[in-house]
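Box S1 | Example of a co-folding query
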Amino acid sequence: MKRAACHEAGHIIVAFKLGIRVESVRVANGLLLTDVWADDLDSTSRPKIDRYAFLAGGSLASNSSLGGDYDRGANAGTIKAES
Ligand SMILES: [Zn+2]
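Box S1 (continued) | Returned holo structure for zinc ion
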């Protein structure tokens, strides 16, 4: 759970920095998930790099604070949101 919390914290910090509103942080099917305001993340005026930074923020945070081998479960949530 520690790695998942670090992962989601990474998303939240990037969202905060980029002015993307975080709606909620919740547990679904045992996975910790961060919901952001889709209009903020997907805004046509927002550079694509912001979206990628938000998505990468999770693994970057957990990897940099807890070391390699990122949380596949949490990352699966991110990939699913991406597709
Ligand atoms: Zn993620």
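Helices lie at 2-18, 38-41, 48-66, 72-82. Residues 41 and 51 are 6 Å apart (CA to CA).
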